[in-house]
Structures are given as C-alpha cells and as structure tokens.
Design goal:
Length: about 500
Amino acid sequence: MALGRCDTIALDGVLAKVVVVESNVGPGLPGVHVVGLGDAAISESRDRIRTAVSNSHLPWPKTKVVVSMSPASLPKAGAHFDLPMALAILAAGQPENNRLNGTIVLGELGLDGRVRPVSGIIPALLAARSQGYDTLIIPPGNAAEAALVPGMRVLVAETLGDAFAWACGSECLPAAEHSAQAVVPVREEPADFSEVAGQKEAKWAAEVAAAGGHHVMMVGPPGSGKSMIASRLPSILPRLTTDQSVEATAIHSVAGSVGTVISRAPFIAPHASVTRAALIGGGSGRPRPGAVSLAHHGVLFLDEVSEVPAQVLDGLRAPLEEGQVRLARARREVTFPARFQLVLAANPCRCGTEDPARCECRSVDRMNYLSNLSGPLRDRLDIVVSLSGQSAVLNAEGEETSAVIAERVAMARERMAQRWASDGLDVLINGAVPASYLRRHRPAAESAMVMLAAYLAEGELSQRGVDRVLRLAWTLADLEGALRPDLDHVSRALDLRGAGTIERLAA
C-alpha cells in the first residue's frame, strides 16, 4: 500500500477553497475510484489521466487506485483536477517526494500529456496566499493571469512529465512571469467618440455618466446613435487599477474566458432575449456569473430594452444598489461582484417614429411600450436623455476624440477621489457614495437643497431620487472644478435625470 498527496482548489463563486487530493495504491482489481463529491468532468478524468500518463511514458499502477478529495462535503467541479490527481497517483510510488508539500497544482490534461489552461487561476492564487502556500503550478496558458498577483512563486508546467519531474526533484520549471509575455492576449481598443457625428447632448450625458459612474438611459429613433455612444463609453473611462483588473479578470476566468487579462473597463452587451440567469447569474450545479458580474468595473449595455421581460429587468435592482449578486442554493450561497454602469437604449415606440403625429402605432401601444421598466428601476436611473434624428450631422469632422474627453473625466475623478478620501470614505466616484452621506455632510448650496425639498414634497422626486440628484450635481461640479454644487448644478442634474421623460415620450 502506498499513499500520495497533492493539493489543489475548488471554486466557490469567485473565491477558492483548498482541496487535498489523496491517492491510495493498494491491492485489488485494477481501476481508479474517485470519491469526494465530484462532477461529471472529474468522473471522466480517470480515462484522461490514465491515457496521459501512458503517453508520457510514466509508470501507472497495475492495482486498485482510490482517489479521495477532501473536504468531502464540498462540491467539486472542473477539469483542473486532472493534473493534481495524476501527480497524487504517481507520487504514491515516490516515498521520498516532498516538493508537492506546500504546493497548489492546477491543470487539465490532454491525452498526449500536455497541460491545458483552466479557469479560476486568480482565485487559486489568492486562496493559496491566504492559506500559507508558497508555490503554485499552473498551465502555460494561464501565465498572463498569474502575473497580475504579486508575491507568489508561480511555476509553469508544459506537460505532465515536466510536472512529475519537478515533483521528483530532477527538473526546474520556468516562472510564470517569464512566460507571460508570450501569451498575453491582444485586446481590441474601444471605438472612438470622434466617429459619432452630432448628438452633443447625448455625448455630454455620456461624459457625465463616465465621470461619476452614473446609470443612463437613451431613448431615440433607430439610427440616432444610441448603440454607438454606448459602445464608446469604455473609451473615456480610466484604465482599471491593478486591484480592479484582478477582480475583473477573476470573474471572467471563472466564467470561462481562460487566459484573458482585463485591463480596460469591460463592455458587456447581452441580447434582448437574455434570460434572468444569464443576466444575473446562476445555473444548476456550479453557479456561474451573469452579465452584471462580467460587467464589473465596466459597462452593461441593454439595447432594445423594451423587448426585455419585466421580471428580467427587475433583477437588476438589487445589484444596482448593493454592487453584488447573491445566489442562494440549497447547500450554499455564492456571491459575485457586480459594480457596473448600466446603459439602456430604447426606441420611442415599436415603429420607431420620432414624431408622435406620424407614429403608426396605436396610442395604447405607444403608451405601454416602455411599461416593462418598473418605477423602482426607473428611479435608479441617474440620467435619461432623448436623442433626435435632427441632432445628427452628416460629417463627423471636428468631433472631440475619446482621449480629449477622457482627460476631463480623469480630472473630475481625481477631484472625487481626493474629496472622499479626505472624508474617510472608501469610494472613488460620486455614484458610489452612501445614500445618506451627501445630505448630512456634503449637501449642495442652501437654495439648491430648498428646491430639492420642494420636489420631494410635491412627489416629483423620491428619497432615492434626491440622493441620486445630489450625486449627479456633485459630478457636474467636479467636471467644472467647483468646490460645491450650487443651484445651477442641481437644476441641470434634474434636467439630466429627465423626470417624466419616458412618460412624455410614450404619451
């Protein structure tokens, strides 16, 4: 009887938990028996591992092999268990092996013994560091992701033979940082605002939204530039910080985008037929992040929002307020980050006619066209802008580039960050300031607050609406370099919020 051990991880949302893979090679009929609440991918790994070991010309036990993964009560899923299971079995015949102690191993095996990239590298790195592990062995395709997390010894194994030779102490593996340059994926640069002809008001609204992290809705006829403006919003957002890049990359890795490093604000645009599970996250077995989490630190764009079912849209309410999604399951609860900017776009009616007098729709259909947007969801929209076909021009020459707009956005965000840091708040943008803080500690000018009180008393604004108007007013002040929002800033914030705009367009 011989025992072998190799440590790995199991994904739990965007977190990872250490799993101990133990193997016992003893008397009995030849075969591999895996226990420990694994999924179908782990059950199928027995044939993959045996074939990979054989093709790598390594010794395979000719007796009974039992592989146990603990903790046994933790659900385990994914093909990244291939390499640690293979090393645990092979290590059973190497009693003098000590290199695998204190090492986390991940990798999917091909039939030829090559180690293929897997998801969840960043969560694995963070879990290994928190649990005191000093070494991580990963596939070469994940080297770029691993380079985002400093302070860990990360080695790259090209094949099963290389990993086993290292475990036996007869070979050295290259470090991930030396291999990262060759596998960094090329990310397309976002489109530029200079390509949008006209629509100055809509572009200004996009600039304000980018500066303060506000949610936007654009209503206008087909071809007025709604999708163009939305797709160019990431081009004026600042590049992600190292921490933000790690968070975003971890989510995309868990979702299956293996080897992709997110360095710019992601732009996620699901189709109008998106389901609630695809938008919010979920699924049977291992829950997966939805579009709201993939848009973390970026932009979530829903075009033709009138076609999205109301029950799907209402699922956005909690993530917009909390910045995260909690998926409750029978055995556990999984949390995914979801702090994003929401951009909605819709036509004024089904036929898309801008002028109500020329509309071909029945009056009742026009009135109910945007009825799938519930009042609570509308209340969470900071900016509602109406686009007109008459605001477009034929030639885009002389339009501001994204770089110019991005400079103004960056300066405004710097003012925000300095102000909230001096106040002791752990926020960077106005859109993330706690609801009650602005009223108590950072109100607008007295005349502006009196006007907001009047709007609140008349029912034109809700309590949430007052808070969002104040955040928007502070963003306008930051863009202009003002020390405090005045009556003009609050008035313009009310105009940008567009109270009654959707109802007016549908009338």
